[in-house]
UniProtKB/TrEMBL annotation:
Stated name of the protein: Sugar ABC transporter permease
One GO process term, biological-process aspect: transmembrane transport
Phosphoprotein among keywords: no
Coiled-coil annotated spans: none
Record domain ABC transmembrane type-1: where: 67-290
Intracellular or extracellular location(s): Cell membrane
Family to which this protein belongs: Belongs to the binding-protein-dependent transport system permease family.
Keyword Phosphoprotein appears in the UniProt entry: no
Membrane-crossing residue ranges in chain numbering: 71-90, 111-131, 160-181, 219-241, 269-291
InterPro entries xref list: ABC_transporter_permease (IPR051393), MetI-like (IPR000515), MetI-like_sf (IPR035906)
Pfam families reported for this sequence: BPD_transp_1
């Protein structure tokens, strides 16, 4: 009986582990190795160059622009998305009178907010490219229609506005999912806590700050990790929407785009792999720091 159980476990786990090693761990190992070579992607052999590719990253001005832009997106996109998502979810659950009744039609609002999740990022980027069109776009057309034509801009051609326009698209495409996620987290809070806060005379802001936010903190931390990963990528939106892509003047350059260009345009697969490894460790560091911060808070509360 005992040996049969172990055979069953081995039969269930070994195929999955083999697939994981072949299709997940093996590509990672290959990328780490290629980052130490000068492979062009088509040559039959790759010459070992050590850490030379990583040393080049520090002197690559376009890559440094990409790091700066990703850092800005890493701060802005998660904070704005989580802020809007929490606000909308709270209004749908706490906006009504009498505890956690919320506003009328909150279920319909969740469906509307979630709609962008049904579209791929490429489709979203194409649609917003039309919206931002300086001549025929919906945004400038709307501004002109209400007499604010002086505010019309070439949104994706201005170095000062292009990154903001891209981040707005990322927020718009993501916020609906997190509205639903935070709504589910708020649904898990016992109703008695909201009723007790109401009896104590707590207003909407006090209830959110003292009851809702502490009890959905773990969900917020998970959302920050996922949004941070999305902000560190942002390749599809930048590739489709922006001038260059990555322009103007590197204003929307991101690490994923630099990696793609060096690999498939310049044939520098070794150098591109070094960028990929750098992005991997940046993402890993973000996840570890976020999860450690959450664990520390749980220990302090305990």
């Amino acid at each position: 009986m005992r040996h049969g159980r172990w055979r069953f476990l081995a039969g269930a786990l070994v195929p999955a582990l083999v697939l994981h090693v072949v299709f997940v761990l093996s590509p990672y190992a290959q990328a780490f190795y290629l980052s130490l070579t000068d492979w062009t992607g088509v040559a039959g052999e790759a010459h070992f160059v050590g850490a030379r590719n990583y040393a080049r990253l520090g002197g690559d001005s376009l890559f440094l622009d990409a790091v700066r832009n990703n850092a800005v997106m890493l701060v802005v996109v998660p904070l704005v998305t989580i802020g809007i998502g929490l606000f909308l979810a709270s209004m749908m659950h706490l906006g009504g009178r009498g505890g956690r009744r919320g506003i009328a039609g909150s279920g319909a609002y969740q469906i509307v907010y979630f709609f962008p999740q049904l579209l791929s990022l490429v489709v979203i980027a194409v649609l917003w490219g039309f919206v931002y069109n300086p001549n025929t776009g919906l945004l400038n057309g709307g501004l002109r229609a209400i007499g604010l034509g002086g505010l019309a801009q070439s949104w994706l051609a201005s170095p000062a506005l292009a990154l903001i326009a891209v981040m707005a698209v990322l927020v718009w495409s993501s916020v609906g999912f997190y509205v639903v996620l935070f709504s589910a987290a708020i649904d898990g809070i016992p109703r008695e806590l909201f009723e007790a806060a109401l009896l104590d005379g707590a207003g909407g802001w006090a209830t959110f700050r003292k009851v809702t936010l502490p009890l959905v903190r773990e969900t917020v931390q998970v959302a920050f990790v996922y949004l941070g990963i999305a902000a560190l990528d942002a390749f599809a939106v930048v590739q489709v929407m922006t001038v260059g892509p990555g322009g103007p003047d590197g204003a929307t350059e991101v690490i994923g785009l630099s990696l793609y260009r060096n690999a498939f345009t310049y044939g520098k697969f070794g150098y591109a792999s070094a960028m990929g490894v750098a992005l991997f460790f940046a993402t890993l560091t973000l996840a570890v720091l976020a999860l450690r911060a959450g664990r520390k808070e749980r220990l302090e509360l305990a």
